[in-house]
Automatic annotation (TrEMBL):
GO CC annotation terms, alphabetical: cytoplasm
Protein name: Glycine/D-amino acid oxidase-like deaminating enzyme
Annotated ranges, domain FAD dependent oxidoreductase: 31-393
GO-annotated molecular function: oxidoreductase activity
Organism field: Chromohalobacter marismortui
Length: 469
């Protein structure tokens, strides 16, 4: 296993580490200043420059480009939004279908922009399999989820059921009972994307300062230890790393997600597993997991981690042996052909979770402040859509995206995003929910009838989910 600097597999795939960018050591002016050089900040900068090349755009990054979740995630580009039903559940079906079409088409838009700009990020649109593959109760769970997707507005052409035989043609899990195939999902290498996107926006004229932690967000001004940027518009694009900004941290908290990467697999092993089209895959566990086959023939596989008391973001990347073993065991449980395969990397980061799972793009023109986030782990695709939306709102462009129900013009995040409860209530609730989810998982894996306990525990966990989501 590698030390912290080399624990993240994605970071090792670059031909060379990008040179450090300068710190902000002066007082400068800009038309827009963006705090955070991750996906949200860089996509916002990209579309601002593409739409209004004359605008002066400055990006401030506390560490290095892609230091946060943008450089540490599992690489899924999902044509959906976590918590989408919160925004569109009460709309007529035709409007829901339009909204779902926007988030589905966003996957193809990411691929189109990468091709147009020459950003090589191993983008592969292989769809996603949401499998019922470890215990029979997952069949009903996935069937219910497919019905939910259709009722929400996703098309049957994009989301449909695979029977056991159809599933085995795509991937061979331990117990391949069936599952959902979601066509509008791709995978990529997030470090290659964030690195290439930063270089792209710099070519367009955006200025990026690294090692320039924003210490205060005042009215039309962002200050660092050694300098400041005055601007009529400030974009806070910190998501799960808003440690210094209590006003945002009350509304979007960091939750850990931890990932492993195997050694490259032999062709014989891939013949056993399948996945010739390199689909993303997950099962129906509440302990959310996600994986895919990388361009060089490994499996990258992650599962939701924990919540730190006090809403602390994960600064380092390395994870401990216990976290690695848990994910390896879960992966082998899904894919027995991986027994004996070595795990070479293990890393983690913090994703941003808003209360009631409400991803958002918000522009408060009166205060000159904009923000986007709350992606709940699905930020690779959402950050592109929301960064583009923020740019269009800032420039007062009338597009379909700015009229979406998750885009809020002339509004404040304080009014729109519910605050999280105070500590230690948040932490205690997180521990209780984690143990309850694990109990349901253990009970279902026994594959034995429990006519009273199983439904009761499932109802309890559904209730937990409705409270936090």
């Amino acid at each position: 296993m590698h030390t912290d600097a080399l624990s993240n597999f994605w970071s090792t795939t670059l031909d060379e580490r990008p040179a450090s960018r300068p710190r902000l050591t002066a007082h400068v002016q800009a038309d827009v200043v963006i705090v955070g050089a991750g996906f949200t900040g860089l996509w916002t900068a990209y579309y601002l420059k593409r739409l209004a090349p004359e605008r002066a755009i400055v990006v401030l990054e506390a560490e290095r480009v892609g230091h946060g979740a943008s450089g540490r995630n599992g690489g899924w580009v999902v044509g959906n939004l976590a918590g989408l039903e919160r925004h569109i559940g009460d709309l007529p079906l035709a409007e829901r279908q339009t909204c779902c079409g926007v988030v589905a088409d966003n996957v193809d838009e990411v691929g189109r922009v990468l091709a147009f700009e020459g950003i090589e990020a191993d983008f592969n649109k292989g769809g996603a399999i949401y499998a019922a593959a470890r215990y029979r109760d997952q069949i009903a769970i996935q069937r219910d989820y497919l019905q939910h997707l259709h009722e929400l507005g996703h098309s049957e052409a994009n989301c449909y059921w695979l029977d056991a035989e159809q599933l085995s043609e795509k991937a061979r899990f331990r117990n391949g009972y069936g599952g959902i195939y979601h066509r509008q999902v791709a995978t990529l290498n997030p470090v290659k994307l964030v690195t290439g996107l930063a270089e792209c926006v710099e070519r367009l004229g955006v200025t990026i300062y690294e090692q320039s932690r924003a210490e205060t967000l005042a009215h039309h001004k962002v200050s660092t230890r050694e300098g400041s940027v005055e601007s009529p518009m400030v974009v806070c694009a910190t998501e799960g790393y808003a440690d210094r900004f209590l006003d945002f941290k009350r509304h979007v908290i960091p939750v850990q997600s931890l990932v492993i990467a195997t050694e490259p697999l032999s062709e014989a092993r891939w013949q056993e597993i399948g996945m010739a089209e390199r689909p993303a895959f997950a099962d129906a566990s509440r302990l959310i997991n996600y994986g895919h086959r990388t361009a060089d023939g490994r499996i990258v596989f992650g599962a939701r981690g924990t919540y730190y008391l006090g809403a602390r973001s994960k600064a380092d990347q390395a994870i401990d042996d216990g976290a690695i073993r848990m994910r390896r065991d879960l992966l082998v449980d899904l894919l027995p052909a991986l027994e004996g395969v070595r795990v070479e990397y293990g890393w983690g980061g913090s994703l941003g979770l808003s209360r009631n799972f409400r991803p958002h793009a918000i522009l408060d023109r009166a205060s000159g402040l904009a923000t986007a986030g709350g992606y709940a782990g699905e930020g690779v695709a959402a950050s592109h859509l929301f960064g583009r939306t923020l740019a269009e709102m800032i420039l007062a462009r009338d597009t379909e995206r700015v009229r979406m129900p998750w885009a809020f013009n002339d509004a404040s995040h304080r009014q729109l995003i519910k605050r999280w409860e105070v500590e230690p209530l948040r932490w205690l609730a997180a521990q209780a929910i984690t143990y309850s989810y694990a109990g349901e998982e253990a009970l279902m894996r026994r594959d034995r009838p429990a006519p009273l306990l199983k439904p009761a525990l499932r109802r309890l966990n559904d209730r937990f989910a409705s409270i936090i989501e």
